[in-house]
Amino acid sequence: MKLYTKTGDKGKTSLIGGRVSKDDLRVETYGTIDELNSFIGKAVTELERPLFDDIIADLETIQHELFDCGGDLANVMKERKYKLEEVSIEALEKRIDALSDEAPPLKRFILPGGSQAAATLHIARTVTRRAERQMVTLMNEVEDVPTIIQKYLNRLSDYFFAAARAVNARLNVKDVEYVRSGDVFK
């Protein structure tokens, strides 16, 4: 099997049920989700077992769910069933709560960073926020998109923040507070 098809040589790409320009907002949105998935893969390589087995398992689940998001966004058929479900959001919320309990309470904003894995998780958080902004624009321009993806991305960025802080806490690496921040978390 050849990896190249040459069908995109003129700037068009296939969706499930149609073709669009490669710079279509739908393609841009699921492309950003794909970029995010790659950063998650990088984060997994930076986490040591067994200390981070739970977070690695979370990240692998999230990678599958992001493929679901991409497939759901790429599907423009009239009759379709989406793969991403509310249960994924509920699972993220439980993990956010558990991971948040591992890190010291926050009073101020923190700088992204700390350990290498935490820094990569912060990159994943910011790419998630970009995907979420693109998703909101897509929802405003196109009525027929799965809005659950926006909700999932919103929760996912919170997960990455909590996971980055938990990684630093487990490694005894202190988060660096933004020095000009007032107390914003109470």
UniProtKB/TrEMBL annotation:
Pathway: Cofactor biosynthesis; adenosylcobalamin biosynthesis; adenosylcobalamin from cob(II)yrinate a,c-diamide: step 2/7. GO terms for biological process: cobalamin biosynthetic process. Keywords: ATP-binding, Cobalamin biosynthesis, Nucleotide-binding, Transferase. GO terms for molecular function: ATP binding; corrinoid adenosyltransferase activity. InterPro entries: CblAdoTrfase-like, CblAdoTrfase-like_sf, PduO-typ. Homotrimer. This is Corrinoid adenosyltransferase. The lineage of its organism: Bacteria, Bacillati, Bacillota, Bacilli, Bacillales.
